[in-house]
Design goal:
By secondary structure, the chain is of the alpha/beta class. It has ten helices and eight strands. The strands form three sheets. The chain has a four-stranded mixed β-sheet with strand order 1-2-6-5, with helices on both faces. A hairpin with a 2-residue loop joins strand 5 and strand 6 (about 70-75). The termini are far apart.
């Protein structure tokens, strides 16, 4: 492990756990940065000043970033400093999977030529990033790591709440009268949602997952937004290998093209559609859910928000 520390850093046992995770995924020499200023560091390395560590119902704990000198795993030290060693080992193993994908060129870089429109590229990007998570999590499941916090029942319970709240807020926020802002608000929600669903799928391939532990509102949200789509996603994911199996371009490209249809189906279930734009527009973005359906979803969001606020 090649480690750089900015700030307080981690305990020795935590560093040992990180090394164990990297080794488990056969990336013992990966570059690691342990930082207290996680968001600033990621913004600097990615040259993206808009980057935020918030993701749906959680906070990003680590991120693998491509740099001219190679991939580096950045750990969010304040978020992780009081976590146990097993969680850090698992997190390091997961991020080592991203390093492995980067080394093999199994990402989006250089693949925009596969699509003929911006909206298809957007959906392919969403699908590709979720597939990365799926492949890595499948490897971790095979290595007997426990399910990730972002794939367990408690997280799903919160995720279904935030899914409904974010989409309803996108509809009622006056700022979203601007179509591009409206589009960005919805697509940012689908971005974290697809990754969450990939985490769930890696440990649960059932077309009818057990939702008995979810709250009543979360079960309603799952049934409303996800249930009709879930079987399609599971069927699509079924034959995608875990990250330890390399995919040639001739194998990966068709998977990424199929991902466009999968993400379009999910977007439709959420109540929206992306398509070709007219009159020089880059894309068209529309709500397709009915007023009645949106009213029911909004009422459910208000009820659950009040219930959580009073708890």
């Amino acid at each position: 492990m090649q480690a750089e520390v900015t700030g307080v850093g981690f305990r020795e046992d935590q560093l040992t756990a990180i090394e164990a995770g990297l080794t488990a995924m056969s990336e013992p020499d990966a570059r690691v940065a342990i930082v207290d200023d996680f968001v600033d560091t990621v913004q600097r390395l990615t040259e993206n000043p808009a980057y935020s560590a918030g993701r749906g119902a959680g906070i990003v704990a680590a991120k693998t970033i491509h740099t001219p000198a190679g991939d580096v795993i950045v750990f969010n030290a304040p978020e992780l400093r009081n976590r146990d060693s097993l969680l850090l080992e698992r997190l390091a193993a997961h991020e080592a999977g991203h390093v492995k994908l980067g080394k093999r060129g199994e990402g989006l870089r250089g693949r925009q030529h596969l699509v003929d429109s911006e909206w298809r590229w957007q959906l392919m990007c969403l699908g590709a990033l979720a597939i990365d998570e799926l492949r890595i999590e499948r490897a971790l499941a095979d290595l007997a790591y426990p399910v990730a916090l972002t794939g367990d029942v408690d997280y799903t319970d919160d995720a279904m709440f935030w899914l409904n709240c974010e989409l309803m807020n996108a509809l009622v926020d006056p700022a979203n009268s601007d179509v591009e802002k409206f589009h960005d608000a919805v697509m940012s929600t689908q971005d974290w949602l697809t990754k969450h669903l990939a985490y769930v799928a890696a440990y649960n391939s059932s077309p009818t997952p057990d939702l008995s532990a979810l709250s009543s509102h979360s079960r309603q949200n799952w049934n409303d937004y996800i249930a009709a789509h879930w079987g399609k996603r599971i069927a699509f994911y079924e034959n995608i290998p875990d990250v330890r199996t390399a995919l040639a371009a001739s194998e990966l490209d068709p998977i990424l093209l199929t991902a466009i249809d999968t993400e379009a189906d999910l977007l439709s279930a959420l109540g929206f559609r992306l398509s070709d734009g007219g009159h020089g527009q880059r894309y068209a973005f529309h709500r397709i859910s009915s007023d009645a359906q949106c009213d029911r979803r909004l009422q459910r969001a208000r009820e659950e928000f009040a219930l959580r606020d009073s708890a």
